[in-house]
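User: structure tokens for Response regulator, please.
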Amino acid sequence: MLNVLLVDDEPLVLEGLKTMIAWERYGFHICGEALSGSEALRMIQDHRPELVITDINMPNLSGLELIEQCNRLLPKPPKFVVLSGYDDFDYARIAMRQKVAEYLLKPIDDEDIYSLLVKLNASLQEERAAEQSQRKQQAFIVNNIINRLIQGESGERLWQQAASAMKIREESELQCLLVDAAPMTVDLNAWVASSFPDERVHAFQDSSGRTGLLVPSECLPGRVEEAAMELHKHVSVSSGEPVLVAISSKGCGIGSIRELYRQAAQVVQVKRGQGRDGLFYFCGDYQGATKFEAHKEKLDQLLDAVMAGHVEDIDSCAREFIASFACRVPDIELTKAYVVNLEWIIFERIAELGGDPDRLMEELQNGYGFLGELADYSMIERYVLQLCVRGASRLNELKRENESNTIFHVIQYVDREFRSKLQLQELARQFHMNATYLGQLFKKNTGQSFNAYLNEKRIEEAKRLLKRTQLKISDVALQVGYPNTDYFINKFKLSTGMLPSAYKQDAGTKAAPEQGGSADA
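Assistant: Done. Predicted tokens:
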């Protein structure tokens, strides 16, 4: 299906266009409707339709002005069909000069619009096929050039070819993203084409089969890490396996590509050995004590405060963490790289507990903007502080919810299985909890210790059996979970003040037994 956007400032005309024409029969899907030229411009930039059918006379931004803006702003503007209530030669002449596909007079004749849609569908499909073929050919050329560069080939001619094919200037700031996934099930070229309208973002595959991206910073100002997260999410969902995305530092021009690739490849090598999944930046060569290790103590202290929910400690830990960079690292982008790793750890823990990390990310972006756009250490410090405070708060909520659910299931399990051999340590292992903490939660929710609750359940069942059956005392003990009869008798007396035999006699049980057997002598 090809996408079409309908534009008219008259709602009734818009509704007529939508309902009176069998769009899907002719291979078109309505991706949106706009009541003004300015609204249409925004929707065209967002949805990238192949075809726009627009009225010519609209307030603020006319149909012709909309076409002119699209031709000026977009690398590949859609085809336009212009509608007009006036048979005005000047309008038609301007429209033709702007290369509109057709100029139609209202009211639209059914035959005219249907024959036009057939013609446009064929034309657009032909263009799409040609573009895909050209894109594949261009991707092959670019992939070959990038591999020659990362393997160390140089020379003025190669650099000129690279600059021309990749549309990268000498002063262009670049970063390399390298994806380590097995299996790699995503067509990265197709993902790039759909995600980045800018032709300067290039996918490649290295000699070992790993796929990567070369991203000029100007294409995604301050948002490279956001794109990397989207890439990680896309590949993870597709493969269903752990995915590592490594991000290099920044370099300038074609001459930096080999070094940027080396950095990303080094991150992949180190992090893969650690079995890591996620998004990781190059933070200096991994020889001896790295820059990351130099700040690890402060990062660990901050993470400990967040994971433990100690909000009162987060402020000082966050300030010390950022101060350690501000004092020693002149590159603010490197600081942001560590903050992205901090984000990743917090978001990952939220997801593990069943929360929605995207919600926290949206809150941060709405309140403080994108991390990549923050210009100084004070802004980054505020961002980190809010990330950690809000992250700790959300983690505390999720822990409480999970604890409530877990202890509910533990109590249900004890109520159902009290006749079995139950031990707190074994239950803790079964429900993936610390035994001491489980004991505390159990008492908080039942008002009794685990052993007291278990004994009460067993004694209550024993009383029922003694009243209603003719089972021996030893058999009752076994049935309620006490293999030692003397121990059972002692527990029963402590609980009821009576021996089981006296309780049985006092109850005056005369009913037919539920099970065979005779009473103890």
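User: Anything notable?

Assistant: The two ends are 88 Å apart (CA to CA).
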